[in-house]
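In response to the reviewer comment on reproducibility (Comment 2.3), we provide here a single inverse folding case reported in full, input and output, so that an independent group could reproduce the run without further information from us. The structure tokens appear first.
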């Protein structure tokens, strides 16, 4: 919405939320999320044509277009628990829109929802006899965290799904007019509603599938002395395969991939497509396997016991340039390391507050330390889980000197210079490559 406000000074954009705390943060210089470049752009538009408010009912009534961007977590209860999407917030929002709208509205699905959810939305919105007309559009979001600004300002594509009726097409054109302020026409794709809804899930499923695929190859590389980075490079230069999303790691995280694939699996099961469901479910199973494999590699390398050993954890966010830790591999990995009775010293430039919440109530010894040099004092090993660029710049001789020997480093992202670390004296365990040890 900030980018829309920046690019379309002729539109008034109001972001509403039921949380006053969150809205207050949006109205301050301390935004509720960390995203490079965002504060700058908020400051450019806030108070001019960008507003943050808790007056939901008034804003619904005043708006011509309403973007529904509420969260759609995985259901934790009842039918479909663990897989299906919990649509309660979407439904509550639809009811609130219906109660407060006194003029026709275009309602845009921004949240990621199951295919055919627009139908449910339309049924609720038109469920009594008032004369207000609602046109539903699907406009899924493809931006990624950390690169959100670039992804919004120069998107690969903008997808808009609509009904193929005169009013559906007219609403689609109204939304297209907004994006045409800065997005070239050839990057705007229009489809029917169901294709648009499904494309969002499929895009994330394909991206996650690439990561699981390369992670399976990483495990094969580790036992065959092949190098996964070399394999990625060799296959990625085939333009049919492409080079992106082929970095092996400790597994994918984030609020979307697991949730969206499980949602896809649930949909396939719902339509009795058992084999298709099993295919996609395997992407998640391999991800779980990859996180566990990382823990086992640490355990095996460190003489099959971590009891009382100190480990520094470099990075807790699910990826760099964000403080977000939702479904971060670090959560699973740290819990497992604590189960093995390791003592953890976790460091991360932005995610320590979230890390504290994620590990609250878990038994074991955990410290949260901002300064990476302080975090390695007296540790036996380092587990690098998030590839923050600052970890490349550290003085590893200084770090080595502060550690217990033999010193181990488990580079879960192949982020560091392994040869140089080995020369300093570290026993180095990359992903998908043979270890470099002095043992
Ligand atoms: C993902 C998609 O990339 C966006 O297009 C989509 O809009 C978004 O989900 C969403 O549905 O909201 P995001 O979760 O922010 O974006 O982050 P990604 O860059 O996709 O990374 C996801 C995870 O995959 C991270 O844990 C990252 O470390 C991991 N990853 C990524 C790898 O392990 N290897 C790679 O080569 C790439």
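Designed residues, in position order:
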């Amino acid at each position: 919405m900030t980018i829309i406000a920046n690019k379309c000074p002729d539109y008034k954009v109001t972001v509403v939320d039921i949380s006053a705390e969150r809205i207050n943060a949006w109205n301050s210089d301390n935004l509720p999320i960390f995203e490079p470049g965002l504060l700058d752009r908020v400051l450019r538009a806030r108070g001019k044509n960008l507003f943050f408010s808790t007056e939901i009912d008034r804003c619904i009534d005043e708006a011509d277009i309403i973007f529904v961007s509420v969260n759609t977590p995985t259901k934790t209860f009842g039918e479909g628990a663990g897989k299906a999407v919990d649509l309660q917030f979407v439904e509550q929002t639809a009811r609130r829109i219906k109660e407060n709208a006194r003029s026709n509205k275009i309602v845009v699905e921004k949240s990621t929802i199951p295919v055919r959810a627009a139908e449910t939305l339309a049924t609720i919105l038109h469920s009594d006899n008032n004369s207000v007309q609602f046109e539903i559009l699907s406009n899924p979001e493809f931006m990624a965290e950390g690169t959100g600004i670039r992804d919004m300002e120069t998107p690969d594509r903008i997808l808009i799904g609509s009904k193929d009726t005169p009013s559906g097409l007219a609403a689609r054109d109204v939304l297209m007019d907004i994006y045409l302020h800065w997005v070239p026409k050839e990057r705007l794709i229009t489809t029917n509603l169901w294709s648009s809804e499904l494309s969002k899930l499929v895009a994330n499923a394909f991206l996650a599938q690439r990561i699981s695929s390369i992670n399976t190859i990483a495990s094969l590389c580790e036992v065959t002395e092949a190098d996964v980075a070399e394999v990625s490079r060799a296959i990625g230069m085939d333009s049919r395969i492409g080079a992106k999303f082929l970095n092996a790691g400790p597994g994918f995280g984030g609020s979307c991939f697991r949730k969206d694939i499980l949602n896809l699996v649930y949909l396939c099961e719902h339509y009795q497509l058992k084999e298709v469901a099993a295919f996609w479910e395997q992407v998640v199973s391999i991800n779980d396997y990859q996180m566990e494999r990382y823990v086992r590699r640490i355990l095996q390398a460190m003489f099959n016991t971590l009891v009382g050993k100190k480990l520094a954890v470099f990075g807790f966010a699910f990826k760099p340039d964000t403080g977000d830790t939702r479904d971060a591999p670090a959560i699973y990995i740290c819990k497992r390391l604590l189960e093995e009775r390791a003592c953890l010293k976790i460091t991360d430039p932005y995610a320590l507050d979230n890390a504290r919440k994620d590990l609250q109530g878990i038994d074991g010894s955990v410290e949260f330390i901002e300064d990476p040099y302080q975090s390695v004092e007296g540790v036996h090993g380092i587990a690098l889980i998030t590839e923050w660029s600052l970890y490349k710049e550290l003085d590893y001789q200084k770090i080595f000197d502060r550690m217990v020997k033999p010193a181990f480093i488990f580079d879960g992202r192949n982020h560091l210079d392994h040869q140089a670390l080995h020369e300093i004296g570290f026993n180095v365990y990359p992903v998908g490559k043979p270890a470099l040890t002095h043992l």
